[in-house]
Write a structure and sequence with these properties.
Distance between the termini: 21 Å
Strand content: 25-35%
Strand order of the largest sheet: 1-2-3-4-5-7-6
Helix content: 10-25%
Number of helices: 5
Shape: elongated
Low-confidence stretches: 168-206
Order of helices and strands: EHEEHHEHEHEEEE
Radius of gyration: 17 Å
Mean pLDDT: 80
């Protein structure tokens, strides 16, 4: 996604650091830092006076147990070690996404999610969002919402089509992207990317 170019200064989307997150942490509804750091992406704004971080996204390593993930991938009842091995091999979690209030409405959050999906090293990227039921951002970014009755959070999962899944032989529902259509495939036997039936999708958590 192209960043806006009508501002007086210049916007750029780059790989960031923990410092970028700290610059915007106060604008995220969760006050604590992410438990783990798998990668940081930042939108920076530079003008004649200075350069500052105006948007940030953080990928974290996934927790072993997640109700949304277990529902989507059919992992409920599996041993803890098996769930952890599957998550670490196949998923990264969007744990933080924040944009400075003065730069909201410019599509920066959408650009961050798109870049994180493109550069994520695993097959799926996931988000568990407390505000997800009210905010349609992740669905606009092409992630599939997983409906879970009686759960007060929203789980989203998205695909990275350049990475093949690695796994433990778990039957996995592979989502066909924006259409939200899923079918069962045996993990580790997915059709190679670019061939028929290769529209595997990855997960997003936040």
């Amino acid at each position: 996604m192209t960043l806006p170019d009508f501002l007086p200064g210049r916007l750029s989307l780059v790989r960031g650091t923990r410092r970028d997150y700290l610059a915007l942490a106060r604008f995220h509804y969760r006050a604590v830092e992410p438990a783990t750091w798998a990668g940081v992406w930042a939108v920076r704004y530079a003008d004649a006076h200075d350069e500052r971080t105006v948007g940030v996204g953080v990928l974290s390593y996934p927790c072993a147990c997640c109700r949304g993930r277990e529902t989507h991938f059919g992992l409920a009842g599996r041993p803890y070690r098996e769930k952890l091995a599957f998550a670490n091999a196949n998923l990264r979690t969007i744990s933080r996404l924040a944009v400075h209030p003065r730069f909201r409405g410019l599509g920066l959050a959408t650009a961050l999610v798109a870049r994180m999906r493109w550069e994520c090293p695993t097959r799926w990227i996931e988000v568990t969002a407390v505000m997800g039921r009210a905010h349609r951002l992740f669905e606009r970014c092409g992630l599939a919402r997983v409906e879970i009755e009686g759960w007060d959070k929203a789980y989203f999962i998205g695909d990275c089509p350049t990475v093949e899944p690695a796994g433990v032989g778990v039957p996995v529902p592979h989502c066909g992207g924006r259409e939200g259509m899923c079918r069962l495939t045996t993990l580790g036997r997915a059709t190679p990317i670019g061939q028929a039936g290769a529209d595997v999708q990855r997960g997003v958590e936040g």
